[in-house]
Task: inverse folding
């Protein structure tokens, strides 16, 4: 939940290293670990990746505690779709991504061991009154729910469907209750076999906002770090698998500034070292974004172009920026101006994808006739 | 819940008398019982009423099974506010009614034995996507929730407040779950001392739509009569008091037709019998509505002005109309064209009233500073 | 505009005959005229009708003043679609009606003499804050506008499109200006060749609410009868054709009561006279609605079943009901409870239909890719 | 209009200096000019400023072409309110700012020579479907319109009011028409004495987003720079005064990055030079934001801490950042995550302020009873 569960303006004094800036995305953590180690792989972590039609799909499995420590993420299975062009509001592309998401999500369910008849509860986290945080409630509203039909008139349900229920519990500031209190109660009474929780995330990279989808079987922890009172939602606490789906929708000013400084550094480094560039004028070739982000700049060049600041490591730079902006009250959390359309598009994409993945009888061709 | 839990178009053949048309309002049932008996009181039922500033307030207590049978309502306490001019969208009147509702509701809490520190869960029933059914969710959205503050930082909560939580669970067609399943689960996990459930009702009198508020300690029965599977929410099932607040927001075409026929009958009767009329041209004198509604028409006059139909009793007329409209698909459930404004006004009125009644520190003067 | 331009609660005393209750629908006026005359045709009026797949399509041309007088409508061309099942929220049917509307509307344009390249201004009348009156603004929001592309980058516009602009000017209570003042000004500055005005209508038959679409080339008269100051929008005043599209979305309580009384009369008449009924229990056989509405009841039977009231003519009955309800403040204007969904569905149907009809390159198959 | 009229992603290649990054705010331009000149005043420009209760009010008059050239703004009168704490969502402060805005706006009207009876047309620019751009339409919706009462029933209008009309014409992408075409037409037909145009602006300083209000008598130029076809709305083109009210609601990533780099520079400079800081940990002391922004950093220090980049001038740094981000498609235009609440609060503040300023009979105490 973007809205309330990650209060980012509380800590007046940052202790470098005490709060290492972590990412919610396993894919990002993996890239950083690889970059740091200077090797191809990370011990205890397996990763597969392929790119097709502008969609990069990666599967990461963190096998053990070592892998977990390296990536700063819990052991488990992570699926990530990266689609840089999703922000272009191209409805054809959205449909393609939706169908692809559906296929991959079905594979994910199989790998997690969820069978075709498993009863599913979809939980839409977030605040419906804050557009940037309304992804979860939006998906719930467009979810095809069927559980009541199985309960009340089972003989009338055709084959090809499974029992699905859905709830957008609202945020603590609006309900006065922990999200987990509500979900625990509902799960106990309605006995699903699987929980799918959908949430808008804070991103640590501007380029990921509304372009990346992560699916993980590690559950969620609403309001992690804000106190001991909140319980995680996962297989241990609920007794059933909890799959979390997250999309970055906001970013803080410090991240934007950091990313930009890195872009500028790489850009100048490239000019200084005469690296043959990919064509930076081609906006469709978004691979350059990644390349610039991952490009190594020698300390000497760094110092040359950015002085003292240029010699800082990545985390040090992040901390410096954070430390300056935060006390000034200028580390705003922001979202693209087009947030209304983005949330609508992403929510539709994801709801359609889930509806197709969860019911055999629902396909990309007929999904729109199944829901309103 | 207006939306789904009272399907009114299913029964193709009506068996006169098998489904006697009942009212949700104790006040209405009481008036009908008195009219039928031709006496002042009803055995087993106590009733107090006073009118002030355009607001008629009545307290009805159904003491025992006899009273319950006479009125067709469960034994318990019923508070009713009737404000015919509420539809005039007069903001001053709305504030006055809100403050009066707050006062009476506090008395109601005392009578029910709920103390000042009792923890309250407010449940907004209904479908937020159907404006006429969105009263409950609207009130929840404007409720001042405080429970999380008591839980997370009790030392910082000033005196004059109590722990309040709130939830709009959504309707079964959107969640796939019974409302009671969700509420049972949430009550078990969050342990309130009292549930207040808010719902939009179907009215059986056009004149009551958006003008009447009923408070009862008898709980609610979402989807009563639609099957055995749904459990009531009341003191027996939840173990804590359940106060239901209801406002009629819709009416069916048959009711409109019946009411009109009665108005016409009374009107003609009056003309024929030379009763001195209250001025029927004065729209502010809404007392005439009630008078016309309750006026007795002799069978002879009835026959004269309305023929065969005029000789039917009230229930027979209702059944005839219902029986004709229903198979034609014309017994639409309707709501005033101004429903968007009415729901907004009534929801604000009720949320403000509840916020004042539940927290000593909140008053009609400062309530708007407490909520958004 | 439903909202403000037809104040129906002002006239305290009705003078029978001075304000004959008229209908906005030529089709309805035609049926009434035929019924009154007891003949097949009406002098000066031509009418064609066919039924297919649950859609009744009729074309009426009022040739001259005699026809105009008979029907109480201006001379001109009227196209009417009647689809009783539209209220069933069947998305397949909606698409079928949308495509059919598009075909018929293209014929209408041809008959009116509007060519393929004519520049079109679509005007959405009504109040977007009042759901029942928001049809016009809703259609404007889903209209494919292209005029600015023709103006700013004509060379980039592919063939198969024409210049379309769109405006939802809002109602006088929100703008302080007559709708016609705004439209006159905009037409003068932007010079379209045709105005299409879309409006929600008040119906005089419950069965027509959200089931009937009328297209007319006679223009519109926002707020007709409320004063001399408002000018009509039509070919005379604007110098270009003005096509009005209207859908009944509201009805007043008096109409519901009148319709019901008629249904009851016909029903009892039928039972008394042993007419073999169409099966009144079959809700899909909506032809019975029309049949019951048009069935003649002999005065003797009328008197028998409805007494004095049964002997009144149609207009007299309407006036009596109106006269009784109005001063009581109970002649509410109402709309079906499902108004939110109905307006969304009808608006989508009409916007899709117009987009297909106005641009050769847009078809029912690709229309959803053209708009959001 | 944020949404469409300032396409910022078109120019692939930036020519440093050809598109000097300009500000919409005279106050900001004045500060920059003073900083560049190193003097107190700017020739041809008069400026008054005072601070009270957290609100900084400044009046700037650009007298002549020299002043206009220095500031890059048209000659005219500019009123600016700066309230850093407005983002804290404090309803008391909002009311205080609203009342202060009303007072200052009345002075503005006097200085511009608009008398108490002048007829006013309020134009809300922007796209109601894009929350960050919906300020204008929101204000229009909460404007107290009265013109129709003066036109239709002048004898019933009490004293203390003036004729006000209001229109939110929508953006070109939704109407297919230039905003100015619509406004020209409406002004011609309805003949107001004054136009007040309200718009959301793109800011060039993160700290100004939702904290600054500018009033100017120089009119507006929707879509300035996008082509010759769009006409400005001002006294020359309309023949009546045009007052523009603007509030920055969005900012681009490049601006955030630039601001942050400057904050970091100043911060490090301060540490290096041992300047006694205002307490940077006190978030309420927002004066430090301005101080840090305006602090001069010596080229030598600049080079030390930021290397090559540190030696660039302000405009050069901006251009460099822009030049790097733009081709990568990462120069997103963003708005604070809380945009829904901010637009609601600012719109309410401004609508209340205008309603009080335009009608003598409306005061901060009774304004809420005048509007919905």
Result:
């Amino acid at each position: 939940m973007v809205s309330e569960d990650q209060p980012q303006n509380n800590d007046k004094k940052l202790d470098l290293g005490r709060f290492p800036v972590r990412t919610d995305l396993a894919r990002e953590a993996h890239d950083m670990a690889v970059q740091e180690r200077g090797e191809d792989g990370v011990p205890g972590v397996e990763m597969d990746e392929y790119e097709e039609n502008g969609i990069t799909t990666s599967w990461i499995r963190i096998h053990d505690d070592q892998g977990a420590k390296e990536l700063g993420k819990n052991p488990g299975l992570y699926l990530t779709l990266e689609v840089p062009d999703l922000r272009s509001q191209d409805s054809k592309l959205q449909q393609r991504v939706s169908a692809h998401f559906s296929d991959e999500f079905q594979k994910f369910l199989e790998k997690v061991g969820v069978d075709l008849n498993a009863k599913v509860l979809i939980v839409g986290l977030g605040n419906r009154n804050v557009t940037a945080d309304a992804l979860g409630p939006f998906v719930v509203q467009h979810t095809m729910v069927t559980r009541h039909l199985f309960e009340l008139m089972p003989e009338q349900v055709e084959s090809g469907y499974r029992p699905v229920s859905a709830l957008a519990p609202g945020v603590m500031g609006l309900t006065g209750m922990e999200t987990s209190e509500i979900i625990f109660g509902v799960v106990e009474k309605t006995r699903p076999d699987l929980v799918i929780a959908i949430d808008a995330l804070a991103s640590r990279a501007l380029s990921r906002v509304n372009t990346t989808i992560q699916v993980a079987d590690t559950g969620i922890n609403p309001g992690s770090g804000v106190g001991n009172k909140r319980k995680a939602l996962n297989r241990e606490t609920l007794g059933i698998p909890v799959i979390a789906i997250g999309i970055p929708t906001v970013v803080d000013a410090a991240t934007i500034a950091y990313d930009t400084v890195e872009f500028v550094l790489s850009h100048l480094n490239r000019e200084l070292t005469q690296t043959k560039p990919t064509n930076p004028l081609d906006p469709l070739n978004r691979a350059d974004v990644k390349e610039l982000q991952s490009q190594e700049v020698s300390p000497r060049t760094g110092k040359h172009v950015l002085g003292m600041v240029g010699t800082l490591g990545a985390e040090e730079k992040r901390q410096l920026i954070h430390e300056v902006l935060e006390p000034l009250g200028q580390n705003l959390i922001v979202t693209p101006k087009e947030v209304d359309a983005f949330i609508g598009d992403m929510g539709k994409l994801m709801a359609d994808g889930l509806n197709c993945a969860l019911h055999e009888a629902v396909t990309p061709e007929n999904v729109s006739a199944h829901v309103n």
In short: The CA atoms of residues 78 and 216 of chain C lie 5 Å apart.
